Amino acid sequence: MHQNIIIGSIGTYTPANQINNSFYINHFNSIGVDVSGLLKHLSSETRYIADHNTENVITMAYEAAVKALKSANLDPTEIDLLIFCTDTPEQLTPTNALLLHDKLHTTNANQIFDMNSNCISMLSGLDVASRILSSNSRINKALVVGSFMGSLIASEYDPVCYSTFGDAAVAVILYKTEESYKRGFIDANFKTNTIIKDFYRFPSCGFSQIYNPNIDIEDKKLKSNSFDMSMICKDWIELMSSLCTKYDVDKHSIKQFFLSQFSKPEIEKTLEMMGVELNKYTFIGNKYGYTGLTGPLLAYNEALVNKSIHIGDYIMFCSMGAGYNLCAILYKL
Amino acid sequence: MHQNIIIGSIGTYTPANQINNSFYINHFNSIGVDVSGLLKHLSSETRYIADHNTENVITMAYEAAVKALKSANLDPTEIDLLIFCTDTPEQLTPTNALLLHDKLHTTNANQIFDMNSNCISMLSGLDVASRILSSNSRINKALVVGSFMGSLIASEYDPVCYSTFGDAAVAVILYKTEESYKRGFIDANFKTNTIIKDFYRFPSCGFSQIYNPNIDIEDKKLKSNSFDMSMICKDWIELMSSLCTKYDVDKHSIKQFFLSQFSKPEIEKTLEMMGVELNKYTFIGNKYGYTGLTGPLLAYNEALVNKSIHIGDYIMFCSMGAGYNLCAILYKL
Dihedrals φ, ψ of B285, to 5°? Predict the structure, then answer.
């Protein structure tokens, strides 16, 4: 018998307010910047932006979690572990996990915490939850939520972030099961390299200066610089290939790849360099914008809805967090 | 043979600037509040406050981590996993973990992330690291750091937080070992109950309102209210007793208890209610103030320095995070 950690259900949430490219093209035109080429290159079309007066990462995560619980036909009291993944928290005290726990009434989720590894937070959270499930006999069902409100931290003078970020939340329920064959979470592979640690900074002044009245509000937001993505494609391939080799899974037998949803060309470039067919990825960045840590899971959900993946299929998640750190996860449905 | 997860070494850091009770008593006298009784009740004497222009949670964690590595005679490249625990982060992007990784040159620590469960963050981080070590064959040595800069977020009008908080960092190196007997991390026990979720809030306005110019700076800091600690003492006893029962460890054979360092009377009340001798705890809150998540580990370090614990002894960590959530860890040296 195998002890498997499987995704029991998934729920997603995007705010009601859909915004088209034209809004950002006009906004940046008014300050003399043309973002039309960038948006075309990234295949952006629409994104959804939260109402900052009524929504935050916790309310968004709640909507996603309610759907995931309903889809799994689970009562909130059946959850043992709750991990809240975000790099745009609403609170630091108490944790977003605790406030979500309160809203959801997950009264038996005694182990709860927030996690942040930027845009790989959701993949990291799934890895951590899987390790806890597999090594702690008290934990049988985990709720891992990811919530991103990039619209709150992006400076309206930052062409890349402001014009591409979309807000979204995703919730995944992981089960521990005993089955006669191996499936579910197979393994994760990480890489950290700090060479671009200064390219994305939030808050750019650091929290130790956040109350300094002499610092401009723009310097309290996210500061970003562009960098060459090609080195990342190579690292992604190395992480994914090494998982395939370790578990004797032919790369051609991976049914779908759910990569970072920032740039469609970079996904295609990665799969091309890897020698994988270009019909084996799901891209939702055109519809939802760049939704940070939620992207690979939103893509996975889309593939489930589209029925492009089925029980028994191998799939691969792979993404990148600021600084940078990378994570690839091999999973069997 | 047993696979054990043991604390290989510990390093601590407190800033140079020591502040006595008299400073806080005078400060609050000037606004018509008397904190002398509170400080006497909590057994406070001194605390150390960081220089907000030259120090932050990352620089403090770095100092503690360098000591832990040196004490373990380890090269930074031997670390496989780096977890940065804090509820007063300096950055959200990139993570504090990534910036510490860069400063320390822990070039092989590919899996890194930030974690927050408020004042139990360091105990939660040790639990998570232990689960990863025990279930991931690639991970053999983990660095878990905790860093708290409460002085940054406390309002100078808040008698409890402003007068009791002290800044500090702690770093723990965990090893995976194969030994003929069971020791090290035995198990952790958690409890979450959200009945006081509104009693501590940071930022009190929520980050979704942090850039709102109409909100006063005081409402962007920590807001706190007092509550009855007696229910917490009962919960702590339940968590610790259930670990003792599960692993057949007599409570009298626990050599030392390292509890929340907020209040000496509450520690004594807990041990008294539990029926444990009052010479079995270490309190460092008098010297360091309330240093949040670092407290139980600073106390553990003090007990090592004082030689009040030895190889083969059982010890118990137990603390409380805002909202509230609790964690107890049973450990055998």
Answer: -60, -25
Nearest CA in chain A to B129: A128
Nearest by CB to B135, which of A109, A135, A220?
A: A135
- E runs forming strands in A180-293: 184-192, 200-201, 223-224, 254-259
The CA distances from residue A72 to A10, A75, A106, in Å, are 8, 9, 15
A216 CB-contact burial (10 Å; exposed 0-12 / middle 13-18 / buried 19+): exposed
How far apart, in whole angstroms, are the C-alpha atoms of residue A177 and residue A194?
38
Query: Is A92 close to B88, i.e. CB distance below 8 A?
Result: yes
How many whole angstroms separate alpha carbon A158 and alpha carbon A33?
A: 10
pLDDT, tens digit, 9 for 90 and up, residues A21-77: 999 999 999 999 999 999 999 999 999 999 999 999 999 999 999 999 999 999 999
Question: Cα angle at A80 between A78 and A81, to 5 degrees?
Answer: 135
Residue B106 dihedral angles phi and psi, to the nearest 5°: -85, 65
Who among B95, B135, B197 is closest to A116 (CB)? B95
User: Does B184-332 match B2-179 at the fold level?
Assistant: yes
Pairwise CA distance, residues B230 & B81, whole Å: 37
Nearest CA-CA partner of B176 in B213, B144, B133, B212: B133
Rounded to a whole number, what is the distance in Å from the CA of A241 to chain B's nearest CA?
16
Q: What are phi and psi of A46, to 5 degrees?
A: -125, 165
What are the structural domain ranges in chain B?
A: 2-179, 184-332
Class of domain B184-332: alpha beta
pLDDT in tens, A84-140: 999 999 999 999 999 999 999 999 999 999 999 999 999 999 999 999 999 999 999
Task: Please report residues of B whose CB lies closer than 8 A to that of A197.
Answer: 94, 98-99, 102
Bridge partners for B316 per DSSP: B257, B330
Distance from CA of A173 to the nearest CA of B (A): 18
Nearest alpha-carbon partner for A200 in A262, A264, A285, A269: A262
CATH class of the domain at B2-179:
alpha beta
